[in-house]
Design brief:
116 residues
């Protein structure tokens, strides 16, 4: 009896500290109302749904990552292509430059005198 009285007084003191003098009933959730077998079934279904959603999200994320890498690689290639061809054309001899670009040099003022 002493223990029960102590418990009751402690509960009353707690309620008084909170400035609440009525005890609120404990809320009963859907999950707590289920039987143990139903709880396992409920949780396994939720886990399956979550795993499917995670797989879908992961696939979507990978798709956008791969697409982004391809797009950025293509842009980098386009930016570096002129530098690459300039570097390769620097190894041309004077005769090759005249053969390939002679018409362009002749159309410039001064003719082909200023050519390579």
């Amino acid at each position: 009896m002493d223990q029960e009285l102590r418990k009751l007084r402690r509960k009353q003191a707690t309620l008084a500290r909170r400035n609440v003098y009525k005890e609120t009933p404990e809320a009963v959730s859907y999950y707590s109302s289920l039987a143990p077998e139903e709880r396992i079934k409920f949780v396994s279904k939720a886990r399956a749904d979550n795993s499917r959603a995670m797989a879908k999200r992961k696939t979507k994320s990978r798709f956008f990552t791969v697409t982004g890498v391809i797009a950025i690689s293509f842009a980098a290639l386009l930016a570096l292509l002129p530098i690459f061809f300039t570097f390769l054309n620097s190894f041309m001899s004077s005769s090759e430059i005249t053969a390939n670009y002679g018409i362009i040099f002749q159309s410039l003022p001064g003719g082909s005198e200023g050519a390579a």
